[in-house]
Amino acid sequence: xxxxxxxxxxxxxxxxxxxxxxxxxxxxxxxxxxxxxxxxxxxxxxxxxxxxxxxxxxxxxxxxxxxxxxxxxxxxxxxxxxxxxxxxxxxxxxxxxxxxxxxxxxxxxxxxxxxxxxxxxxxxxxxxxxxxxxxxxxxxxxxxxxxxxxxxxxxxxxxxxxxxxxxxxxxxxxxxxxxxxxxxxxxxxxxxxxxxxxxxxxxxxxxxxxxxxxxxxxxxxxxxxxxxxxxxxxxxxxxxxxxxxxxxxxxxxxxxxxxxxxxxxxxxxxxxxxxxxxxxxxxxxxxxxx
Amino acid sequence: xxxxxxxxxxxxxxxxxxxxxxxxxxxxxxxxxxxxxxxxxxxxxxxxxxxxxxxxxxxxxxxxxxxxxxxxxxxxxxxxxxxxxxxxxxxxxxxxxxxxxxxxxxxxxxxxxxxxxxxxxxxxxxxxxxxxxxxxxxxxxxxxxxxxxxxxxxxxxxxxxxxxxxxxxxxxxxxxxxxxxxxxxxxxxxxxxxxxxxxxxxxxxxxxxxxxxxxxxxxxxxxxxxxxxxxxxxxxxxxxxxxxxxxxxxxxxxxxxxxxxxxxxxxxxxxxxxxxxxxxxxxxxxxxxxxxxxxxxxxxxxxxxxxxxxxxxxxxxxxxxxxxxxxxxxxxxxxxxxxxxxxxxxxxxxxxxxxxxxxxxxxxxxxxxxxxxxxxxxxxxxxxxxxxxxxxxxxxxxxxxxxxxxxxxxxxxxxxxxxxxxxxxxxxxxxxxxxxxxxxxxxxxxxxxxxxxxxxxxxxxx
Lengths: 290, 462
Known about the structure:
The structure holds two protein chains of two kinds. Chain A is α/β, with parallel strands linked by helices.
C-alpha cells in the first residue's frame, strides 16, 4: 500500500443535501485518498488507532509528515484531529483511559516503544495549545523554562541568548524586550500565544504541533501568528490543527481532512481547496456541513 | 401557661392556618376553573396565613420573655417595706435573690422576715398575672393574624411575593443574629479586659516577661501579688505552633501533591477520606494520645540519647497537634493544586518536563498563594487549639525556645484561670479575658491576612 488509492465506493455524483452528506456512512471507508505518503518523511504514521476506553476516536490512519512542511488538519468538530495530533508527542499519555495502537515513528524511531524516553521526545516535538497557556512566571522565565530543564544553557549569558533568539523568532522580542521580567500572563492574548511559541522553539524542537493556535485570538493577532508559521516552516516541521479553512489554505503545504475519526483525504493544499478528490472533503470545504 | 406550651400552641395554630388558607384558596379557585386561575400556588396562600398567624405572636413572645423578669423584679423591689429596701447595687442583687428564692420555694419561709415573705408573695402573684395576660394576648394576636391572613385570600391576591419577602427577611434575621452574637462576645471580652487593665497596666501585660497569676486571697497571705506578663505564654504558644507546623506543613503538602498529581482515581477515592478521618478525631483523644503515649516515648527516647526531655514537652504537644492539622493543610492544598488549570500541566509536560519538574516549577509556584493562605489558616487553628496542650504541654510558664522543655500556652492558662472556684472581680480571673482578647486579635489578623492572600490568588489565571 504505497500509492494512493481512489475511493472504492464513490457515491453517485449528483448533489446531495447537507443532511444526506452528514448521514454518509464512513464506517466502511477503508483507505485515505490522495497523497498521504511522502518521500522525505520526518514522521510516519501507519495504521494508527486511538481509543478512549472502548470508544475508538481514530480509525486506521496512515500518513507521513515531510521534513519542513506545514501540514494542516481540518475537519468537523469531534473528528479526532486534536486527538491524533496529541498522539504525535504522546501527550495522550496524560489521559488515563487513552490507548494508542499502530506505529508512529519519527526519523524511523518508534515513538511508542518502551525504550523511548518521553521527556526527550517532547523536547524534539514541541506543542502549542489552543488557549495561550503561559506559566505564571515572568516572560523571561517562560522562555527559559525548557532550556533550563533540558540543561541547554551552560551560563546565564547562554540562556539570555537563547531567550532573545527564541523571542526574536517568535516575533515578540521588540514588543517585550523592555519588560522581560514582568509576568507573562500580563501580555495580550496574541502576545501570550507568541510567547508560547517562543517557549516551544527555545528547546529547538524538530517538529512543532499546533492545536488550533489561533482559535482564541482576534484577526490581527491571527495574521501575525500565520506569518510566523510561514517563517518557522523554514526551520521546523509543523503540524497544525485548525477550524478555519482559510487558515489552512493560507499557511499549509498539504491538508489532511478528517471525518469521524477517519483520515479521508490528504493532498497539496491548493488541490484540496480547488479540486478535492473525495466527495466528503468537497462537501466540507464548500460549507455544506461542519 | 408555660412558655414552651405557648410556643407549641402557636406553632400548632400556624399549621392550622396553613391548611385553612390553602383550603380556602383551592375552594375559591374551583368555580374559576382550577388553581391555574389563582395568582399564586395554594401553598403560598397557606404560608401567608400561617406567617400572619405565627410570626407576630412569636415576636411578642420573645419580647415578653426578655422583659418580663426584669420588670417584675423592679416592681417587687420598689414596693418592698422600707426596712429591707436596698441601699446599693450589691444589696439590691442580694435582696432580689432572696425574694425569688423564697418565691420559688428554694428557701424555707419559716422564720423569714415578714416583709420578705410579703415581697415573695407579691412576686408570685405578679408572675401569675404576667403568664395569663401573655397567654391571652398571644391567643388573641394569633387568632387576629389568622383571620386577617385568611380574609385577604382571593384569586387575585399576590401571596407569593409577600411570602418570598418575609422568607428573605427571616433569613436576614438569622444572619444578623450570628453576627450580633459574635459582636456581643467580642464586646463582653473587651469590657472584662478593660476592667483587667485597670488593675494591671496594659504595658506590663503585653510586654511582661513573668507569668504567675497567683493572687493573695486574704490580706495576711504572703508573696502572692501575682504578675501578669503574657510574653512567656505567647512564646510557648508560638513554640508549640511552630513544632506543629514543622510536622504538618511538609507532610500535609506532600500528601496533597501526591493525591492531586500522582494518585490514580481509585487510590484517591480511598486515601482522601482516610486522611480526612484524622480531622474527625476529637481533640481530647489526640490530647491523651499526646500525654500518655507520645510524651513518655519522647522522654525515654531522649534519655537513651542522654537528653533530658521533660515528660510534658512542647515537642510532644506540638507533634501531635501537627498530626491533627495534617488533613487541614492537605485538603486545602489539594483544593488549590487541583484548581491550577490543566493547561499549565499540559504546557509544562509538552516542553518535556517530567512530572516532578512540573510540580516543582509550575504547579507549586502557581498554587503558592493559595497554599500559603491554607497554612495561615492552619496556624491560627494551632494557636487556638486547647485540649492537646492542656493535656500534654504542661503548666509552667517558662520563657524558653527549647521544645524539649515543658511550656504553657495562652489557651492552657485561660482554662486554668477559669476552672474551679473563682472570684469574678480579681485580676486573676479577669486576666483570662485579656488573654482571650489578645489571642482573638492575633488569630483574627492571621485570618484576615490569609483570606487576603487566598483572594488575590483567585484572580491569577484570567
